[in-house]
Write a structure and sequence with these properties.
Blueprint lengths: L1 H91 L5
């Protein structure tokens, strides 16, 4: 009966060692996954900050473009007015040779 008990103890001890090894490997995988998750969160944070900066820059560029378009429109209207005045002046005072 002692040999059977010793065999059971050996089997339980071996099973315990296998479980401990599996637990250790599981903890290592968990730590690796935590580390990967942390790196992913950091990349996400950096990407979000970059997106915010780009959106801000885009907004500034859009405002500049609108102002530039308005300035161009005012300049075009002014040139059209000058051209109209010159045209009217030529009709009133034709150039003769």
């Amino acid at each position: 009966m002692g040999a059977v008990k010793d065999g059971e103890e050996m089997m339980l001890q071996k099973r315990n060692e296998e479980l401990e090894k599996a637990l250790k490997e599981s903890k290592q995988r968990e730590e690796k996954m935590k580390s990967e998750l942390q790196r992913a969160w950091e990349r996400l944070r950096v990407a979000e900050e970059a997106e915010e900066r780009l959106c801000s820059q885009l907004g500034e560029l859009e405002a500049e473009a609108v102002n530039h378009a308005r300035d161009c429109h005012v300049r075009i209207l002014s040139l059209m007015n000058e051209l109209s005045q010159a045209h009217n002046h030529l009709h009133l005072h034709p150039v003769t040779n």
